[in-house]
Design brief:
This protein is of the alpha+beta class. It has 17 helices and 22 strands. It folds into four domains: 100 residues, Rossmann fold; 70 residues, ATP-grasp fold, A domain (Dna Ligase, domain 1, 2-Layer Sandwich); 237 residues, ATP-grasp fold, B domain (D-amino Acid Aminotransferase, Chain A, domain 1); 41 residues. The protein has an eight-stranded antiparallel β-sheet with strand order 13-12-9-10-11-14-21-19, sandwiched between helices. A five-stranded parallel β-sheet has the order 3-2-1-4-5. The protein has a three-stranded antiparallel β-sheet with strand order 7-6-8, with helices on one face.
Length: 500
């Protein structure tokens, strides 16, 4: 593979190009008119304009991208994430034109692109599933009966959904029909498919995802887990690896479950299997993302792997050159997505010119970005400016390093999520690891961005959570142990020190 076209823009295009350069592979950038001076365009060996700024007139033009590949004798296409990365039809056309698609097969993309098809696929491989339906809901009255049997609250989810669209929480039977209609309408508008299913709603879930690699020779490894529970509008903002609550025994179980999910659709290349983890450390399959994830750098920092290079090697039909036993966790990594958003105004996107843009530097800091000082943040695409990633020898060092990096990151001209990131890192519940996907709703208040933390409370919470997790995962855990945990929790809450 001598030349690769990156069918994407911004930071991910630039990140892929850097790995290609280290492998001696030439790169081709594609861009819209508004991105003509973007760093990924200037860095590539060759660059071709696809059209005007709107993505449906540029980055989503799969046929035009393939024409560029053929004209420039491109050997492979890396889709990055977003745009065409999970478009099975695009992947199929790339392959049909004799070009390597640096990702999974079109069949795997199609199976895992439908939540219902994915659930049915992984079920055969004993991957734990949240109780619910495995077929689209067609009979409302029958669906109500199933919901009663599962027990409220339940969750209505669009089969083709993502980003929280087509998703409704129902707390009682009387609300079911109305919420179903809303979910179907939203799913139809967003995805062109109103198929919905129901499952038990896990009230305080953690979002845990496992990075997997598979090759064409049937070899699989998991590159540990990422904790992605800090979200706003069902989209991640702060991620870390490894998770604070995953024990070595649970890591092995959830990693093997992720590999089984990949095997269920004969998956190869890099992918991510997402799970929800309940308060008793039970995990359930959520979905599989058939591409590289935004947060892949934190897995790279704790494993020492370059996941893009691994993707390219697998696309070249090479075997994975290491086994599961060769992998180990080194330190701790945290990623903050730096969005051009106003955290004091419900995270609304903010556009403007980067009047000042200075990145933090120093040991253990990595910034994946696609902007430079003086550039404008366009309104046509996702408002992410950069991924600020840090590594530390342990979680405490990683947190302190991230706070230092946030303080040194200078961005003027647009509002960003940097202050929100600082709020999260200073919050006692994050420091202690006591978080779930409702963190923002529970604790975030823009008036508290500079709140002082109570170090004694953090220490007490951390010690309590460590004891709780050890007890919860004991294979022969007795009801007496569970009662002890609940009583300890109740007593601690009554007597805990108050935050400043």
């Amino acid at each position: 593979m001598l030349k690769i076209l990156i069918a994407n823009r911004g930071e991910i295009a630039l990140r892929v190009m850097r790995s290609c350069k280290e492998m001696g592979i030439k790169t081709v950038a594609v861009y819209s008119e508004v991105d003509r001076l973007s760093p990924h365009v200037l860095y590539a060996d060759e660059a071709v304009c696809l059209g005007p700024a709107p993505s449906n007139q540029s980055y989503l033009l799969g046929d035009k991208i393939i024409e560029v590949c053929k004209k420039l004798n491109v050997d492979g296409v890396h889709p990055g994430y977003g745009f065409l990365s999970e478009n099975a039809n695009f992947a199929k056309k790339v392959i049909e034109n004799g070009i390597k698609f640096i990702g999974p097969s079109p069949e795997s993309i199609e199976i895992m692109g439908s939540k219902l098809m994915a659930k049915n696929a992984v079920k055969a491989f004993d991957t734990p599933l949240v109780p619910g339906t495995d077929q689209p809901i067609s009979d409302i009255e029958e669906a109500k009966k199933i919901s009663e049997k599962i027990g409220y609250p339940i969750l209505i989810k669009a089969s083709a959904g993502g980003g929280g669209k087509g998703m409704r929480i129902v707390t009682k039977s009387e609300e079911f029909e109305e919420q179903m209609e809303r979910a179907q309408s939203e799913a139809k508008n967003a995805f062109g498919d109103d198929s919905c299913f129901i499952e038990k709603y896990v009230a305080s879930p953690r979002h845990i995802e496992v990075q997997v690699l598979g090759d064409h020779h049937g070899n699989y490894v998991y590159v540990f887990e990422r904790e992605c529970s800090i979200q706003r509008r069902h989209q991640k903002v702060v991620e870390e690896a490894p998770s604070f609550v995953i024990t070595p025994e649970l890591r092995k179980k959830i990693g093997e479950a992720a590999i089984n999910a990949a095997k269920s659709c004969k998956y190869f290349n890099a992918g991510t299997v997402e799970f929800i983890l309940d308060e008793n450390l039970n995990f359930y399959f959520l979905e599989m993302n058939t591409r590289l994830q935004v947060e892949h750098p934190i897995s790279e920092l704790i494993s020492g792997l370059d996941l893009v290079k691994e993707q390219i090697k697998i696309a070249r039909d090479e075997k994975i050159s290491f086994s599961q036993e060769d992998l180990s966790i080194n330190g701790h990594a945290i990623e903050l997505r730096v969005y051009a958003e106003d955290p004091q105004n419900n995270f609304l996107p903010d556009i403007g010119t980067l009047i000042e843009y200075k990145k933090p530097e120093g040991l253990g800091i990595r910034v994946d970005d696609g902007f430079r000082e003086g550039m404008e943040i366009p309104i046509y695409y996702d408002p992410m400016i950069a991924k600020l990633v840090v590594w530390g020898k342990d979680r405490t060092e990683a947190i302190e390093r991230m706070k230092r990096a946030i303080d040194e990151y200078r961005i003027k001209g647009v509002k960003t999520t940097l202050p929100f990131g600082k709020f999260v890192l200073n919050h006692p519940n994050f420091i202690s690891g006591d978080i779930d996907t409702h963190f923002v709703e529970k604790y975030y208040n823009s008036d508290l961005l500079n709140e002082t933390i109570n170090e004694e409370e953090i220490k007490v919470i951390s010690e309590f959570i460590t004891i709780k997790n050890k007890l919860l995962f004991e294979k022969n855990n007795t009801q007496k142990s569970i009662s002890y945990i609940e009583n300890s929790s109740s007593n601690w809450k009554k007597n805990r020190p108050q935050a400043v």
